[in-house]
Amino acid sequence: MQFSKTLINWYSINKRSLPWRETKDPYFIWLSEIILQQTQVKQGLPYYEAFLREFPSVFQLANANESDVLKLWQGLGYYSRARHLHATAKYVVNELNGEFPKSFKELIKLKGIGDYTASAIASICFNEPAAVVDGNVYRVLSRYFGIDTPINSTKGIKEFKLLAQELIDKKKPADFNQSIMEFGAIQCKPQNPDCSVCPLNISCVALKQNRIDQLPVKIKAVKAKKKYFNFLVFISEDGKTILEQRKTKGIWQNLYQFPLVETKSEMDFNTFKKHIDNHELLKNSSFDLSFYNETSIVHKLSHQHLYTKFWIINVKNLETKGVSINNIKDYAVPILIGNFIESFRF
């Protein structure tokens, strides 16, 4: 089909030089694809390089401590990706002798690997004609063919997958998949694409109908919930603080944080001081409380907005075992906590 040939030709001329495009090793491809989920290339590239320096093969990654993997992942967000990455590495090493499955059907069974990632690995590493569908692909196909089915609907997911599978070049599946993703990333961009230089502009339905800015269609997400987080940053006279590991399931599972007090709304200084007077870490201590930030820091996640205050609590001694402030950067923490640690400097 001319559509596929045009994209592959465009890709051969315009593709960016990226390290994972210089290999067909499934470990490297898998690692890059997991890192680039929900992440732009310019942000993900340094993480990819750091992971390969620390874990040059699936065996080193499998033998690592989860806390070290999470620490290296810090700042990328969506930490379940890192936990699944580590779990899958251990499975591949312990159950598959370090060899990745060679087909889409088997790859998709691995933890953290969905349709898109399995298709990418199968096509790039093993030349299987399995079409990838990501945000870039949705955008290119919806605009070129004028499809207004919502891309985040059950119908849309099936429709676009079938269309991509029909279009894929069976002889060059890796080139096709990478070309359509790259085309969406640097040519058919979300905002203000330069359609005058697009090699598909003559037959693009969205361009003909002046609907470029209307496609793809997406069902609006549910409004994010507001939560009010108050982190207690203890500082003792002997230079220690308290970090707690989150054990409950969620995006920050197994990461470390300062003791958290969640409230139903924002609190001013006097109200919050009364609120924590009987906190288990303070009930036997005299303490000096102060603001770090009087105005809440708003940390936006996909499903919730965290209105966050850090409260500095100076005490003579800690009521529980603490960690040295000098070692605080050794712990894997959410980016919200990491940013505070960098700015506060203790």
From TrEMBL:
Keyword Hydrolase: yes
Gene3D superfamilies for this protein: Helix-hairpin-Helix base-excision DNA repair enzymes (C-terminal) (1.10.1670.10), Hypothetical protein, domain 2 (1.10.340.30), Nucleoside Triphosphate Pyrophosphohydrolase (3.90.79.10)
Cofactor binding note from Swiss-Prot or TrEMBL: Binds 1 [4Fe-4S] cluster.
Any one GO molecular-function label of the UniProt entry: 4 iron, 4 sulfur cluster binding
Species this chain originates from: Seonamhaeicola sediminis
Keyword Chaperone: no
Record-given protein name: Adenine DNA glycosylase
Family: Belongs to the Nth/MutY family.
EC number: 3.2.2.31
CC cofactor: [4Fe-4S] cluster
Reaction(s) this enzyme catalyzes, per UniProt: Hydrolyzes free adenine bases from 7,8-dihydro-8-oxoguanine:adenine mismatched double-stranded DNA, leaving an apurinic site
Gene that this sequence comes from: mutY
PANTHER family: ADENINE DNA GLYCOSYLASE (PTHR42944)
Function summary: Adenine glycosylase active on G-A mispairs. MutY also corrects error-prone DNA synthesis past GO lesions which are due to the oxidatively damaged form of guanine: 7,8-dihydro-8-oxoguanine (8-oxo-dGTP).
Matching Pfam families: HHH, HhH-GPD, NUDIX_4
GO biological process: base-excision repair; mismatch repair
Record key words, sorted: 4Fe-4S, DNA damage, DNA repair, Glycosidase, Hydrolase, Iron, Iron-sulfur, Metal-binding
Domain named HhH-GPD: residues: 35-186
